[in-house]
C-alpha cells in the first residue's frame, strides 16, 4: 500500500513554474530520498505536501485520502509530520516546554492551551519519557537557545515524532552538523520503526544513500529519475546534472 501519492503536482509563482507535473508514490514503511541541485523544487514540494503551500494543480493522497486542500493541522492529525531545514524551536522556552507544546497540539488537552503547560501532569510525564527515550533528558530544563545546534536538530526530530506520525518529511536533518552530531541524528533516523514512512531531503550523499531504499531526483522542478541507490549512482543524467560528472 502507498503511504503517500503525488499526482501530477505543479506549483507556479507568477510566471515561474517551481514544480512541474511531478508524480511519485512512496510505499508504507519506505525510506525515500529526494535529491536535486539548489532550486530543483525540493523544498517547494515539501511545503505543498505539508500544506504550507497550495498546489497549483495536481493532488496529494495520504493513505488513500485526498489531502490536497487540507490545512497543515488537519494533515498532522492524519499522521503527517515534518521537520524543517532551519530549527523551528521557541528559543526562550525550555526543551521540555517546546515538547509539551507539540504534545498539546495532538492530545485531548489541546483545548486547555490557556492554562500553563506545566498544569498537565500526564502530558509532562509523556514529554519526559520521550526525551529519556532519545537520551535527551539531561537538557530538558535548558532553554532551546542554550543547547547546541546538533541538540536542537535532535529535538526537532523528537517534536515531529511526538505526534506519532505515520509519514514524516525530513528536510535536511543533518544540515550544519558536525561529524559526531551527524552520527547521532542518523542513528535516531535509523532506529525509527518501519511503521513510519520517511520522505527525506538530504545534501550529504553519504548519509542519504546509506539511509534510502529508493531515490527520486528533481531538476528544474521536474522528476528526472527514480530508482534504488545503485541505479541512481550510475544514472548518466543524474551524474551529469546533479553530481557534476559527464560520462562522455
Task: Write a structural description.
The chain is α/β, with parallel strands linked by helices. 33% of the residues lie in helices and 25% in strands. The protein is built from 9 helices and 10 strands. It has helices at residues 42-50, 72-77, 95-104, 121-133, 149-161, 179-190, 205-211, 229-233, 236-241; strands at 2-13, 16-27, 31-35, 57-62, 65-66, 80-82, 167-171, 197-201, 214-219, 222-228. The strands form 2 sheets. The protein has a 6-stranded mixed sheet with strand order 6-7-8-3-9-10, with helices on both faces. The chain starts with a strand and ends in a 7-residue tail after the last helix. 37% of the residues are buried. The model is unreliable at 109-113 (pLDDT under 50).
Short summary of the structure?
By secondary structure, the chain is an alpha/beta fold. The chain has nine helices and ten strands.
Amino acid at each position: 500500500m502507498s503511504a503517500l501519492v503525488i499526482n501530477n503536482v505543479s506549483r507556479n509563482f507568477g510566471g515561474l513554474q517551481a514544480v512541474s507535473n511531478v508524480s511519485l508514490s512512496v510505499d508504507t514503511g519506505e525510506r525515500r530520498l529526494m535529491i536535486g541541485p539548489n532550486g530543483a523544487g525540493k523544498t517547494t514540494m515539501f511545503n505543498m505536501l505539508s500544506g504550507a503551500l497550495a498546489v497549483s494543480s495536481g493532488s496529494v493522497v495520504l493513505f488513500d485520502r485526498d489531502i490536497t486542500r487540507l490545512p497543515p493541522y488537519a494533515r498532522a492529525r492524519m499522521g503527517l509530520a515534518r521537520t524543517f531545514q532551519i530549527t523551528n524551536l521557541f528559543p526562550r522556552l525550555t526543551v521540555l516546554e517546546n515538547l509539551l507544546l507539540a504534545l498539546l497540539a495532538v492530545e485531548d488537552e489541546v483545548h486547555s492551551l490557556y492554562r500553563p503547560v506545566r498544569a498537565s501532569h500526564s502530558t509532562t510525564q509523556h514529554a519526559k519519557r520521550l526525551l529519556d527515550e532519545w537520551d535527551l533528558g539531561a537538557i530538558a530544563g535548558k532553554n532551546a537557545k542554550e543547547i547546541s545546534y546538533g541538540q536542537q536538530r535532535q529535538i526537532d526530530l523528537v517534536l515531529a515524532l511526538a505526534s506519532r506520525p505515520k509519514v514524516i518529511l525530513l528536510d535536511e536533518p543533518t544540515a550544519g552538523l558536525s561529524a559526531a552530531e551527524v552520527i547521532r541524528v542518523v542513528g535516531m533516523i535509523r532506529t525509527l520503526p518501519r511503521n513510519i514512512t520517511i520522505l527525506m531531503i538530504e545534501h550529504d550523499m553519504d548519509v542519504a544513500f546509506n539511509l534510502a531504499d529508493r531515490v527520486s531526483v528533481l531538476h528544474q522542478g521536474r522528476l528526472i529519475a527514480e530508482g534504488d541507490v545503485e541505479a541512481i549512482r550510475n544514472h548518466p543524467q543524474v551524474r551529469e546534472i546533479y553530481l557534476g560528472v559527464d560520462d562522455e
